[in-house]
Amino acid sequence: MIRSFAVLCAAVLAVALGGCTTGMPGGSVAPIADRPVSDLTPATPAQARAKIHVELGMAYFEIGRFDVALDEARIALAEDSSYSPAFHLMGLVYMFIDDTAAARENFLRALRAAPNDPDFNNSYGWFLCVMGEEQEGLERLARAARNPYYRYPTRPYTNAGLCHLRRNDDASAEDQFRRAVMIDGTNAQALFNLAAIQYRRGDYARARENLVQLHQQTEPTASTVWLGLRTERQLGNREAEASYAAQLSGRFADSPEYRDMMQGNFQ
Known about the structure:
The chain has helices at residues 5-10, 45-62, 66-79, 84-96, 100-113, 118-130, 134-146, 154-166, 170-183, 188-201, 204-217, 222-235, 238-251, 256-263.
């Protein structure tokens, strides 16, 4: 769902490790079958009006108009005081404006109404990871990923990967990102983090494969170009390294990555 590259991809801005306690469910775990509340047909006219306001608020949230998003969530609750997606939207907004107490309160209010909603569990799971409560966060993300009705299963897998990175657990993170890419081969965040993990491990050929796939689908950033440059340097591909260097110089000359290149800090 999102302030940095890592946070954006994960919050809005998506692994079978043997069970919830390690991050993602194993094949023997029964799926959580509740449909997302936002996918359900409104039961009353008031709920229909609340749904419209939440959808509008989410659109404003995604472009960074957090004030308008909050207003729309409040209007939705005025229409239907129990409409849980409105609490979820408020939780997202408060998370992004760093009001963590209000974010937690609203996520929990949404979850009390719909404990198995995958959107709610994904968002709250990532919030918990950011707050340093990684274990519970991973369990929430597992619940979201297991739901067969979730339209965005790549989100909790990606968020779980990022959560494992916060624990410095590259192996578990890699597993999560692989699963995210299996679901959505255009998942830029998962591809980048896979490449970064493989680079750290010295698997430069695989890092290169993921970066090539990434750059075929999305516009490069200073971070992805810099990782590409260092990967090609390790592989001894001087022509490709020079191409990345030209991109860094021409498009990202004000970036920390460009300064590192100019200073010869390639590690």
